[in-house]
Amino acid sequence: MARRAGCPGRAVAPTYGRTPPAGRSGPRATSDLEFGLFVYNAGGDDRSVAFLDKDLGSHLELVHRNCLGPLEAAYRFGGPMVARGRGAVVLVTSGAAWAGGATLAAYGATKAFDLILAESLWAEWRTRGVDVLGLVLGKTDTPSMRRAFDAEGKPYGELADPDEVAAAALDHLADCPTWIYGSDTPTGGSPFGALSRRDAVLAMSRGASAHGDDA
Question: How far is 204 from 20, CA to CA, in rounded Å?
Answer without folding.
Answer: 35
